[in-house]
Amino acid sequence: xxxxxxxxxxxxxxxxxxxxxxxxxxxxxxxxxxxxxxxxxxxxxxxxxxxxxxxxxxxxxxxxxxxxxxxxxxxxxxxxxxxxxxxxxxxxxxxxxxxxxxxxxxxxxxxxxxxxxxxxxxxxxxxxxxxxxxxxxxxxxxxxxxxxxxxxxxxxxxxxxxxxxxxxxxxxxxxxxxxxxxxxxxxxxxxxxxxxxxxxxxxxxxxxxxxxxxxxxxxxxxxxxxxxxxxxxxxxxxxxxxxxxxxxxxxxxxxxxxxxxxxxxxxxxxxxxxxxxxxxxxxxxxxxxxxxxxxxxxxxxxxxxxxxxxxxxxxxxxxxxxxxxxxxxxxxxxxxxxxxxxxxxxxxxxxxxxxxxxxxxxxxxxxxxxxxxxxxxxxxxxxxxxxxxxxxxxxxxxx
Length: 399
Prior knowledge:
The protein is of the alpha/beta class. It has 15 helices and 16 strands. It has an eight-stranded parallel β-sheet, with helices on both faces. A six-stranded parallel β-sheet has the order 12-11-10-13-14-15, sandwiched between helices. A two-stranded antiparallel sheet has the order 4-5. The protein is globular, with a radius of gyration of 22 Å. The mean pLDDT is about 95.
């Protein structure tokens, strides 16, 4: 079967959607399908050989489905690419990303079956900004898509959502599907490869990074306001955990990481216990080694859908603490902190209780093996692809 996957982000970018898209592409290729990925141009991405599988087609395009932001770049070239695709199936990643936005006027013309994979429904969410008009313009720009969603949804043969949740936040699309009687959808979550974190050949992260034997807290995320690492710095300093280390791993340092360093320096005289370490440009092997040796994983993000980093914590036998975002509260293996004070308290609680840590480790590991495992997830996508492409539709289901 010939399959096209469209996604605004793809490796070497290191966000959750890029990883999920890459795992899906390689997984379907591993099943014997011929896979092409259409994505944004990246200067560090080397061109694929003509017979590569999956093969990447790049376009210099940016933007999203929002009349205030718009989409700019090689839009006509991408739309011509879609029209010329003569395969069996197109998988669109995300509702409002530019690949899906530019495809909308063409959906009726495209002969392949079409699946939309939702990584969180966001066009209705107000991202409040500190200055006038406080983000209201961008928020209003997303509402045309919201109002058209019940009809837009029906231009796809199938919808995939990450969770059974049907709230008015990032799972509003699931609620709309249920309320409007759209039955061709499945719940297929994100996952993690447990073998990555349980490899005996992984290096000793503590030795490599000069970290002692005290409690190690870990946060893996790009340095940015949405990931909200400043919150983790404040909470860790206030927790005053003797001999503890909070390790941040991001793709690369930037203005936000500099703000983190300044905040830590300001707090350290008043809260001297513990150490904060900021790292960048680590290899995947080094990152997996960090997961393996960490005592607690921390996710302080302001907005997530179903964060892969928490699933990776579960796969690495690491208990987690997270802010209450997306569907995090339904995940086993960790604790949800609903305020900064709560985060401080839960850091202290987990650092001081090996029994609680082990209980959460066991719960997270069991769920990872039963549900949040990439091999199970890809197998579910394999069944869905066959069903949609060969029989036209598939009823609701889950992994």
